[in-house]
Amino acid sequence: MEKKVTPNAISIIRSNPAPNPNGDIPELVVQVLDLKIKSTKNSSRYIFTANDGNLKLKGILPVNVESEVLSGNIQNLGLVRILDYSLNDIPYMPEKYLAVFKCEAVSPSIEVEVTSEADPDETRIAKRPKLETEPDVKSEGTGLAWKPKQEGAKEESTGGNLLNPKHEIVSKPAAQMVEEKHTNEGPAARLAMTRRVHSLVSLNLYQVHWMIKVRVTNKGGMRTYKNARGEGRVFNVELTDQDGTQIQATMFNEAAKKFYSKLEMGKVYYISKGTLKMANKQFNTIQHDYEIILNEYAEVEEAMNEESFIPETKFNFVPFDMLSSYVNGKDLVDIVGVVQSVSQTLSIRRKIDNEIIPKRDITVVDDTKNTVVVSLWNDLATGIGQELLDVADESPIVAIKSLKVGDFQGKLKIHSGIWLCQMLKMPSCDFVPPTLSGVSLSAISKSLILVNPNITQANKLRDWFDSEGKGASVKPVGYGVPSSERGGMKSMYSDRTLISHIISDPFMGEDKPVYQNIRVFVRFIKPDQSMWYRACKTCNKKVTDVLGSGFWCEWCQKSDKSCPLRYSMVMNVTDASGEAWVSTFNEEAKSIIGCSADELHQLKLQVNEFTMKPYLQANSFNSIWYQPCVAPFWQDHDQYVMKLKQATWVQYLLRVSVAIQEYNGERKQRMIVKAVAPLEYTAESQHLLEEISKGQV
OB domain location, by residue (predicted)? Predict the structure, then answer.
């Protein structure tokens, strides 16, 4: 049968820009013109011009059409049948665009462009057939139904052959049509007939009306946030369609309250009237170009008895010996392992809001003979964590999705350096315990844990553990490996910037803090600043000195006889491009100065008023720090000042947060040190060689 285009197909599309999901889309065959690929930052799409011989319309083909184009089934001057579409407005464009969601190839190139001026017998335009029942069609109380054509029926010829002359229009009462449909079709078929569902891979920003059928494969907890516009609530879910494609849906405030209890884990839903936006990869770990925002007017309807059509949760397991490459990165990982031990529940006080939350650690091992500690929080710690504790003796297998990878550093616990020296028959000495390090995993709000899942990886791991894993010698992931080799320093070397780049942009950090990595020298630390504060032992908040009663903490509502000092200071740092003042707090300041705030406070108390007076009266620190020949003679003997001076002109890698703060009506940029690392010359040399090879140095 000769392939033809549908006459007036473009007019039909324009008259019905968003087909009704409850109705059938008419036969639409158009010719493809000007087919070419358009690449963006995140994806590539094929654009074309649809031609019906009379009119033309620019459009976009589905993302899954690439294989058809490469194979030659769809090409310039060829014919395609449009099965699903939407006609949308595009900002700053005078014409509407045809977004094709589903199509199929009809014919390769016919070598000529279809026009309406050629002879009807030679054109590729199919004329509408004469309907046999046309004189009998009535409009009063009747509907139109498609009826299969009887065998032996004669085709009507009106200047061209139909592409698919399989149906004719007959008149039937509307009530009869509805009755026949509900009588002859099952529940799933009836539901499919009344809904036009889009696949997740076909979603794009040009669509206005869409509906998806998805399963909730991951559900995060309800979270609160606070910004310049006030406080609010937010939660998100991960949705999976029948093709296995995933997308994240986020709900704020009223929508979060409305849908949090309605969207249940593992159930299938029809979702429509949402908004698509580009996925923010800082908060979205799903490999999809877009994410869905649902407001309180979105429609979410549960699909009954359709769980079998949607795939189960998919895992992308990472072997334990490969976890080091994910340390301090943005990517979340999935693991499967055998539970070795489960700790009791601990109570941890959260710094942000001083709330006490439960925590539980589990140690798991896999067939790489490495172990890793996974920290569970909140409901995971008290719920499934308790279940694991009850069956820990049976060595259950757990599959965990969406874990954050971090590292820890600690001191080797040795009771006494003198005791070690005696054991080694060495003279008594001041022994410094070595620093140990490793990789740790932490669950987040959307983490999912399955115990003894019936999946291939879990079954293989069980066979390994039963045969040789029980008696195998294992070790923690990343044990004894320097942080730079593990990947812990990787973030310090990536996205490196200069101080001048930060201070030259007055709007950096205006909406939210921006994190940057810089390599700097510590230039100056002001000795006369308030470098510390008395802190509560429990929450680290500032305490009030109560005469005769110790110190009072407003957060914890309790008093204590003694409270330690914690650093809160500023220092001047510099690189080749400029200098800046940065705020530094306790842990980072201890790494730079080399002692605790209490120890530095004791050194300062040893300085009397006579020795400090000329120093504090200096108009500029340059006269003291950069002209040692004219500096007061006491400077070399002041241990407090010398301690600060020893910390200067040492090079560090800093990770700083940049934010805009307003003080006395003046907006200023503030940089806070979030992480400090000494410069490792081997890693730094490797970084410079890589930058030179890229032509950036």
Answer: 212-297
Q: What b/e string do you get for 352-380 counting C-beta neighbours within 10 Å, with b at 16 or more?
A: eeeeeebbbbbbbbbbeebbbbbbbbeeb
Q: Which residue has the higher pLDDT, 590 or 484?
A: 590
Q: How far apart are CA 263 and CA 275, in angstroms?
A: 18
For 422-464, the DSSP string reads: HHTT-------PPEEEEEEEEEEEEEEEEES--SHHHHHHHHH
Taking alpha carbons only, the member of 123, 122, 113, 124 closest to residue 34 is 113
**Whole-angstrom Cα distance, residue 614 to residue 624?**
10
Taking the C-alpha atoms of residue 536 and residue 544, their distance in angstroms, rounded to an integer, is: 10
* Alpha-carbon dihedral 174, 178, 180, 186, rounded to 10 degrees: 160
C-alpha span between 521 and 307 (Å, rounded): 60
Tokens of 296: 């309180």
Q: How far apart are CA 360 and CA 382, in angstroms?
A: 8
The CA distance from 449 to 290, in Å, is 26
pTM, to two decimals:
0.44
Mean pLDDT, range 490-498, rounded to an integer:
67
21: nearest Cα among 182, 215, 216, 212: 212
pLDDT over 50 (residue 39)? yes
User: Are 236 and 161 spatial neighbours (Cβ–Cβ below 8 Å)?
Assistant: no
The backbone torsions φ and ψ at residue 91, rounded to the nearest 5 degrees and listed phi first, read: -55, 140
φ, ψ of residue 504 in degrees (nearest 5): -85, -10
Structure tokens at 538: 């429990």
**What letter would DSSP give residue 159?**
S
Helices within 245-319 (DSSP H only): 253-260
Least confident of 24-28, 431-435, 461-465: 431-435
> Rounded distance, CA 218 to CA 662, Å?
39
pLDDT digits (tens, 9 = 90+) for 97-143: 888 888 888 888 888 888 875 443 444 434 334 444 444 444 343 33
Please state, in angstroms and rounded to a whole number, the distance separating the CA atoms of residues 146 and 170: 7
| Highest mean pLDDT, choosing among 10-24, 68-82, 581-595 | 581-595
If pLDDT is split at 50, 70 and 90, which confidence band does 171 have? very low
User: Is 611:624 a contact under the CB 8 Å cutoff?
Assistant: no
Greater confidence, 339 or 97?
339
pLDDT, the chain, mean:
75
Give CA torsion, residues 262, 267, 273, 275, to 10 deg: 100
Q: How confident is the model at residue 478 (pLDDT cuts 50, 70, 90)?
A: low
Residue of 97, 81, 79, 99 lying closest to 89 (CA atoms)? 97
Asked whether residue 635 carries a pLDDT value surpassing 60, the answer given is: no
Assign 3-class secondary structure to 183-246: HHCCHHHHHHHHCCCECHHHCCCCCCCCEEEEEEEEECCCEEEEECCEEEEEEEEEEECCCCCE
